Structure formats: C-alpha cells, structure tokens
Amino acid sequence: MIRVLLVDDQPLIRSGFRALLDLEGDIEVVAEAGDGKEGLALAEHHRPVVALIDIQMPVMDGIETTRRIAADPSLAGVHVVILTNYGMDAYVLDALRAGAAGFLVKDIVPEDFLHAVRVAARGDALLAPSITRELIHRYVTQPLITDTVAGLKELTNREREAVALVAQGLSNDEIADRMVISFLTAKTHVNRAMAKLHARDRAQLVVIAYESGLVTPRSR
Predict the structure, then answer these.
(1) Residues contacting residue 167 through CB under 8 Å, at least 6 positions apart
(2) What is the rounded CA–CA span in Å between residue 220 and residue 217?
(3) Whether 65 contacts 53, CB under 8 Å
(4) What is the value of pTM for the model shown?
(5) What Gene3D superfamilies does its record include (predicted)?
(6) Can you tell me whether residue 63 is helix, strand or coil?
(7) C-beta separation of 56 from 41 below 8 A
C-alpha cells in the first residue's frame, strides 16, 4: 500500500487530489495538512511513502518542510514531491537541493498524477516535462559552475554516460535502450553514480550534472 500525505494550504486542491487517490486500491491518504509545520509533524507520525507538498504555504513553506524531512534519518523512506502552480519557478532548484524527489504542476491530468505518485513511491525521481525542459534550459543558457564535485573523478565512462542521459530526462528503460544494455545494468550505473556523487535521488543528480559541468550544451 502506498501511504500518501497531502500538504497544501488550499482545501480545494487537497480534496481534489484526495478524491483521485481514494479511488485507487493500492493508495491510501493517511493525513492532510494545511501548512508545512503541520505537515512535518504528520510525516513524523504517519511515516508516509510519498508526501505531496505545496511549495508556497504559510507558517512553513514547502522548501523548508522538505529540508527538514530530508535531514531526519527516521524519515528517509519519505519521498517528497513538490506541488507547484507555475512550473519552473524561482524555488525549484532550492527544493531539489533541499531533497525533493521531484515536482508536479497542479494542472496535471489525473492519469499522469496517479502514475506520478506510483513512480515516486518506487523511489524514482519525478520531474514534470515542462520543469525538466526549463531546468535544462536554465543551465545551458547561463555560465556553468566549473568546480567539480568530489565524486566526479570516480565515475566510470559508462556511469558518466548514464548521468548525462538522466540529465536529459530519460528513464532507466530509455537509458538502457540508448546505451544498448539491460534495464538492471542501466539502473546499476545510475545508482552507483548517485552514491559516488552523494545525490539523494535522480532529481539532485540532474542538478549536480549541470552545476558541475558534467553535462553541457555540447554534450546534449
């Protein structure tokens, strides 16, 4: 059973998402909160698998809520998905650095929303296509930070290739097809790269790839 926590200051938004989730036999909404402080307390109490958290809320915003969840070892199994009205806004990178597993725009269609919850529950990163495009655009149109993170030199050539494909928004299945390897081998390359680069998840792997210069406009 996928245990879900809803955190949004708009009751109508919460009720809409809950109505969709309650129809699914493998998903259970364990709690709802109207601000980040309450959401954090409920996360500690219920230990959900997925926490859907609005990025802009009173009392405690989604970024700080995500940061506190990520910093608590007892909540390591909670996958935070940020909800936003605007796609790629000024807070996206901050939330990814704080530990968010991904983002969803609130106008997402119901089928994609339900799929996204299941993807997040598996531990995969989740970036709405519009956000992925804007994230990439931001980094390929501005000067890159050239300092490399410590783990970059430890990556094998195949791991580097896998990271570059993750940064383009490809899933493990698509990476396997592109690299002509099995799904399990693709997953292994990605997981080893994440470990070496100390990335919490694939979303942060994308940020590291662009910030470090591992992925550049030329490599795309």
Answers:
(1) 136, 205, 206, 209, 210, 214, 215
(2) 5
(3) yes
(4) 0.67
(5) 3.40.50.2300
(6) helix
(7) no
Question: Among the residues of 8-155, which ranges form H helices?
Answer: 11-22, 36-46, 62-71, 92-98, 110-121, 129-140
Q: Give the span between the Cα atoms of 26 and 21, in whole angstroms.
A: 9
Q: What token pair was written down for 203?
A: 């979303």
Half-sphere exposure in the Cβ direction for 112 (13 Å, CA): 11
Q: Output the tens digit of pLDDT for each of the chain's 220 residues.
A: 999 999 999 999 999 999 999 999 999 999 999 999 999 999 999 999 999 999 989 999 999 999 999 999 999 899 999 998 865 555 777 777 788 887 888 888 899 899 889 988 887 766 655 555 555 455 444 444 443 456 788 899 999 999 988 887 778 888 999 999 999 999 999 999 988 887 777 777 877 887 777 776 444 3
Question: Which one, of 155, 149, 157, lies nearest residue 191 by Cα?
Answer: 155
